[in-house]
TrEMBL record:
<dbReference type="InterPro" id="IPR000743">
    <property type="entry name" value="Glyco_hydro_28"/>
</dbReference>
<keyword id="KW-0732">Signal</keyword>
<keyword id="KW-0964">Secreted</keyword>
<comment type="similarity">
    <text>Belongs to the glycosyl hydrolase 28 family.</text>
</comment>
<keyword id="KW-0325">Glycoprotein</keyword>
<keyword id="KW-0326">Glycosidase</keyword>
<dbReference type="InterPro" id="IPR011050">
    <property type="entry name" value="Pectin_lyase_fold/virulence"/>
</dbReference>
<protein>
    <recommendedName>
        <fullName>Pectin lyase-like protein</fullName>
    </recommendedName>
</protein>
<dbReference type="Pfam" id="PF00295">
    <property type="entry name" value="Glyco_hydro_28"/>
</dbReference>
<dbReference type="InterPro" id="IPR012334">
    <property type="entry name" value="Pectin_lyas_fold"/>
</dbReference>
<dbReference type="InterPro" id="IPR006626">
    <property type="entry name" value="PbH1"/>
</dbReference>
<feature type="signal peptide">
    <location>
        <begin position="1"/>
        <end position="17"/>
    </location>
</feature>
<keyword id="KW-0378">Hydrolase</keyword>
<keyword id="KW-0961">Cell wall biogenesis/degradation</keyword>
<keyword id="KW-0677">Repeat</keyword>
Length: 415
């Protein structure tokens, strides 16, 4: 289409890195490199040419219905007033030594990213088929697929993410973002069964993020579907389908010794959960610092508050809901009563469906900072093992609302 337009207008084509054609001064069409070469330099150049615009003008970066091989890291931040039209496939190279040595720092937990992306007033449309394929395998230190950083007043829709290298997406230092009609599938690395294995294949994580909406996501993975981490506020997750993972996660948080962080005003509603470990769960580090991020830590301060999980439908979950303040380095046990990170005003409302568990909730809170305002109401779930309604509410250091504690927690995955 754009080539025809060029011919009709008799506009000279400007080749950038031999693969980018500028149709006008604000529209860049990216074409694949011949012979499977690295498309990353051309993509970066396209955003440089067409991704920085002053209102009322907008730029546009177009990916054709082709395969683009990504063999190097990309930093396309500081964008302004630009539309991204993704019709094809961005396919990441499998050169693991390169990614281990060249990935870009995210600025949290010593994590890294293959692509730092961001700016103001961005609109990205994948049309339901535009895809980012990370060619991922489980390998320590591999980068996140994409990091949305320094971004505000932007929309991302209709994008597919498959086989992410690690976390699919991190939203950090960003405000007022809508992410809707997103598909994530990172399940071909390893089967996920009754005893789950954490694969670090999170669907999305928020850090230092405010006013973020996740709407109509489909996530199939072996880890957190969507997770809120340090300083995440005013987050809405709604009308989503989550498969074969751990659930909606608050945390982990409290990893940085002596650092005050918050998670506040989070709503997850109208969630369908299939063969998951939990519908939702909350996790903090202990109050004893051991090791270093991303795998170690502890001793953090702060609170998670005003969190609502409403209208969840469970389909054959292995568990229902859990809180733990026992997270520690390399899964070390003990020190569960030491965390000073506080959890208060967390609500479960109107959960239905099926699970293979007699435990509605296992809420293990720290004696150093007991949980208050833990509300559970409107639970109508069938334990398919016993053919009865789950009856146990396990608690440590909890002030319950709407339910009575039936005993203490006894392990992380109480069933």
């Amino acid at each position: 289409m754009y080539a025809s337009l060029l011919a009709a207008l008799s506009v000279p084509a400007l080749a950038i890195a031999q693969t980018v054609v500028t149709v006008t001064d604000r529209v860049c069409v990216v074409e694949p490199c011949p012979n499977g070469g690295d498309a990353a330099p051309a993509i970066i150049e396209a955003f440089e040419l067409c991704g920085h615009n002053e209102e009322p003008s907008r730029g546009k970066v177009v990916f054709l219905n082709e395969t683009y091989n990504i063999r190097s890291v990309m930093n396309t931040t500081g964008l302004k007033n630009v539309d991204i039209d993704l019709n094809g496939l961005l396919l990441w190279d499998t050169n693991i030594p390169y990614w281990l040595n060249h990935s870009l720092p995210v600025g949290y937990q010593n994590q890294s990213s293959a692509w730092l992306f961001g700016g103001d007033n961005i609109s990205w449309d994948g049309h339901g088929y535009g895809t980012l394929n990370g060619s991922g395998v489980a390998c320590p230190g591999r980068p996140h697929q994409i990091t949305i950083t320094g971004t505000k007043d932007s929309t991302f829709s209709g994008i597919r993410f498959v086989d992410s290298q690690m976390w699919t997406m991190t939203v950090i230092h960003s405000d007022s973002i809508l992410l809707e009609d997103i598909y994530v599938n990172s399940t071909n690395i390893q089967p996920v069964g009754f005893d789950f294995s954490s694969l670090n294949t999170d669907g999305a994580d928020t850090v230092y993020a405010n006013n973020i909406t996740f709407r109509r996501w489909t996530v199939s993975n072996g880890d957190d579907s969507i997770a809120m981490k340090g300083n995440s506020t005013n987050i809405l997750i709604e009308d989503c389908d989550f498969y074969e993972g751990l659930g909606v996660a608050i945390g982990s948080i409290g990893q940085y010794d002596g650092v005050f962080e918050t998670i506040e005003n989070v709503t997850a509603r109208n969630i369908r959960s299939y063969n998951m470990r939990y519908g939702a769960y909350v996790k903090t580090w202990t109050g004893v610092s051991s090791g270093y991020p991303p795998n170690g830590g502890g001793g953090g301060l702060g609170y998670a508050a005003n969190i609502t999980f409403s209208d969840f439908i469970l389909h054959n979950n292995t568990g229902i809901y859990a809180v733990t303040q026992c997270t520690s380095y390399n899964s070390a046990s003990g020190n569960c009563d030491t965390s000073k990170f506080n959890l208060h005003d967390i609500r479960l409302q109107n959960w239905t469906g099926t699970a293979v568990s007699d435990v509605v909730s296992a809420i293990q809170c720290s004696a150093a900072s007991p949980c208050t305002g833990q509300e559970i109401v409107g639970i109508d779930i069938l334990d398919t093992v016993n053919g009865t309604a789950p009856s146990q509410y396990l608690c440590d250091n909890v002030s319950p609302v709407g339910f009575n504690c039936t005993g203490p927690t006894w392990e992380e995955n109480n069933r």
